[in-house]
From TrEMBL:
Source organism of the structure: Cocos nucifera
TM helices/strands, residue ranges: 12-30
Gene3D superfamilies, per the entry: DnaJ domain, Glutaredoxin
Record's compositionally biased regions (Basic and acidic residues): 695-710
Protein name: DnaJ subfamily C member 10
GO cellular component: endoplasmic reticulum
Pfam families for this protein: DnaJ
Keyword line: Membrane, Transmembrane, Transmembrane helix
Start and end residues of each stretch annotated as Disordered: 668-722
Record flagged with keyword Protein biosynthesis: no
Superkingdom of the organism of origin: Eukaryota
Residue ranges constituting the J domain according to the UniProt record: 37-99
Length: 722
């Protein structure tokens, strides 16, 4: 059976609800949100001076020990705590300006410790003031001018707000140093002391009273994303104060760096090697600890995402033989660069820095040529960002480098660009091996590596005894161009870059090299050609001509590129010295003779990554998704802050009173008419009566009129009366 609610309660439900809520706020919420201040405990005004605090405490002590009004144990603990905190200049400053009181837990601890004990048995001081002086030992502390200079730039910044008198900040200092080291190269770091009130208040949150405060106390961490120049875009860290959590938050949420995942020995080949593009170098990092990748590694994974793919492997001793046989890895930590299937991996071993990579002569040419080494092993130390970038620059390309949309300008193999020798270079060359990915192409690429090494040895005084004198003679022109960075060796994926390949090798048999394989035709013929680029061409009309020795084929005219082009195809054998001789003849003639040329635009190279995950244009500021998350979190925090506003309780009670009066007034109007309404009704009735009398007076007499008083009825003579 349903319980019926009395009509009166229904009518006054809203006022009763508001009254109950306001009473609950005033009795329960408000006292817990606004406990007595330490100044109130001592009986002095807010922000009283240290001298006033001392005098107030001495007066209370005099009363206690005189025996007139001894305090309870809890009262003594609270008063003594307030005295010690407010007489410490740094603690008092932090409490007055930012409401920071991070040793408040001491009161509860002492309550339990001295429960039932007389206050005279409590030994002061209650607080430990022997805190390391962070003001003198601060790590990368910033002045206000330095703070302004490092924020708002193209690099992210992580700021720690600390106090020189904070025990928590003193404990966090070593962790902060490690965080700074881990973020080196990807983000700037700095510390701001609360004494720099203007900067600290700028980094703090604001209460409804506009007083600055730090929600989670100190130390407080604030991150400025790249190009963040205002208080609307910086982000406060709300998580656990651990090194790995902070670094991961900075790398993932602020910098937007990709994660590098761990793979088991079973999952490495199918889930990493097979799923990453063949055009990318594989970078495999071996770790003994299983820790997350350092931020500079994740930054490299983002910056070199078009060149390389990254993976981590947890080193286990039982798997050591697998990694030795596969990559030549002896132990962890180690980094392996895999450039091509079947090529020799480049392995960086060890924990101690023996020598820098740049000091290794010939390291760039080793992997594709030394068949008696299972891997190239180099001992390096604990890498930092700049050293790892150096290693990546040396190993980001395949051997030789692949001609791609992202590498053509860098390699100097684009008519719209410049030579690797510099923007002032007038003539330069690009040697290209084109073909479909196959065993034949790999052999031709290996041959080109050997050709390049022969040319390097021809100009290297240390290796001059390795090269025959006659070889040095006929290789001189090409070797000199290679030394001057005017000659580049590269290879082209003819299957993917069909238009580009056909542009240079247009002939009846070009399908053997360019484009997908035809149905039933398994022929793969890699071809070698060289392109000469000449800047500042001025001839207006270009005619198709042949090189006098019939080795040059020119391209048709169209003045569209910055440099003219001339292409020659190699039609000889794969003998290394024959190729060297041919290249030298081409370079010598190209440098000394006036040759036909073309300015016809080259087809664009097709990007291998249609939708790159990481784009440089997206760097800076927070992503839209992270910005929305931060906004929602901020709104939730502010709602909680406003729920402790002391004006809410009186406002609810006032609303209850107004609502009660409104309901009562409406109910009174519906049950009792007012005097004004009664007077109006009587006047209306009187007016109707007068109107009725007036209308009867004006009408003519009729048989329906009332009978006069002296009227009588006459009887006729023929009546039946007696």
């Amino acid at each position: 059976m349903a319980v019926s609610i009395p009509p009166v309660l229904k009518r006054y439900s809203i006022p009763l609800f508001l009254f109950t809520l306001g009473l609950f706020f005033q009795i329960v919420v408000l006292p817990s949100s606004f406990p007595p201040t330490h100044y109130a405990v001592l009986g002095v005004k807010t922000h009283a001076s240290v001298q006033e605090v001392t005098e107030a405490y001495e007066k209370l002590s005099a009363k206690w020990f005189s025996g007139s009004t001894p305090p309870t144990t809890i009262e003594f603990i609270k008063i003594r705590y307030a005295y010690e905190m407010l007489t410490n200049p740094i603690w008092k400053r932090d409490y007055d300006l930012f409401g920071i009181d991070e040793q408040l837990h001491v009161i509860e601890k002492l309550k339990k410790q001295y429960d039932g004990v007389d206050f005279s048995k409590i030994e002061p001081p209650l607080l430990n003031a022997s805190i390391p002086d962070l003001a003198n030992h601060g790590f990368n502390a910033l002045t206000p001018e330095e703070f302004v200079s490092i924020t708002g730039k193209g690099k992210a910044v992580l700021i720690q707000v600390y106090s020189a008198g904070s025990p928590r900040c003193a404990q966090f200092l070593n962790s902060w140093k490690r965080i700074t080291n881990l973020l080196e190269g990807v983000a700037e770091t700095g510390m701001v002391e609360l004494g720099d009130v203007q900067v600290a208040a700028y980094l703090a949150e604001k209460k409804y009273t506009r007083q600055p405060f730090f929600r989670n106390g100190l130390p407080a961490l604030v991150a400025f994303p790249p190009n963040c120049r205002s208080g609307d875009c910086y982000v406060r860290y709300q998580g656990e104060l651990s090194v790995y959590e902070i670094v991961d938050w900075m790398a993932t949420s602020i910098l937007g760096l990709p994660r590098i995942y761990y793979y088991s020995k079973e999952a490495l080949a199918p889930n990493f090697m097979a799923k990453t593009g063949q055009h990318k170098v594989k970078v495999i990092c071996f770790s003994k600890t299983g820790e997350r990748a350092a931020p500079f590694l994740r930054q490299a994974a983002k910056d070199y995402g078009t060149y390389a793919s990254f993976a981590f492997i947890l080193w286990r001793e039982e798997d050591s033989s697998i990694w030795w046989n596969s990559f030549g890895v002896e132990s962890a930590p180690a980094i392996v660069f895999l450039k091509d299937p079947g090529s020799k991996p480049v392995v960086y071993h060890g924990l101690f820095l023996s020598y820098h990579l740049m000091s290794l002569p010939g390291i760039y040419r080793l992997p594709c040529c030394l068949k008696d080494y299972s891997s190239i092993s180099i001992i390096v130390g604990s890498l930092n960002s700049s050293e790892f970038i150096t290693i990546m620059e040396e190993n980001k390309h395949k051997e030789p480098p692949q001609l791609r949309s992202v590498t053509s300008m860098e390699l100097g193999c684009d008519a719209r660009g410049y030579s690797r020798a510099g923007n002032d270079t007038k003539i330069w060359y690009c040697v290209i091996v084109a073909g479909r990915p196959s065993h034949e192409l790999s052999k031709m690429r290996d041959t080109m590596c050997r050709v390049r090494n022969v040319l390097l040895d021809a100009v290297d005084p240390d290796n001059a005894n390795k090269v025959n004198f006659s070889v040095q003679a006929f290789a001189a022109a090409a070797a000199a161009a290679l030394k001057e960075n005017r000659l580049t060796f590269t290879w082209l994926d003819g299957e993917l870059q069909k238009k580009y390949c056909m542009f240079y090798l247009f002939s009846d048999d070009a399908y053997e090299t360019c484009g997908p394989r035809r149905y039933g035709d398994l022929t793969d013929v890699p071809r070698l050609f060289i392109v000469r680029y000449k800047r500042n061409s001025t001839e207006a009309n270009v005619k198709v001509k042949k090189w006098p020795q019939s080795i040059w084929d020119t391209l048709s005219e169209q003045n569209a590129n910055f440099a003219s082009q001339l292409v020659a195809r190699y039609k000889g054998s794969q003998d290394i010295y024959e190729i060297v001789r041919w290249l030298s003849e081409i370079v010598e003639d190209g440098d000394t003779k006036e040759l036909p040329y073309s300015t016809q635009p080259t087809p664009d190279l097709i990007p291998e990554d249609a939708n790159p995950i990481w784009s440089r244009s997206n760097q800076g500021m927070l992503s839209a998704r992270n910005a929305v998350k931060e906004k929602i979190r901020s709104i939730a925090f502010h709602i909680g802050d406003y729920m402790r506003d002391p004006r809410i309780g009186p406002g609810l009670l006032l609303g209850a009173c107004i609502s009660f009066g409104t309901v009562w007034l409406k109910s009174s109007q519906t049950t009792q008419p007012t005097k004004r309404d009664e007077g109006t009704s009587s006047r209306r009735a009187s007016r109707r009566h007068q109107n009725t009398r007036s209308s009867n007076h004006d009408r003519p007499p009729s048989i329906t009129d009332s009978e006069p008083k002296d009227a009588y009825q006459l009887l006729s003579t023929d009546s039946d009366s007696e």
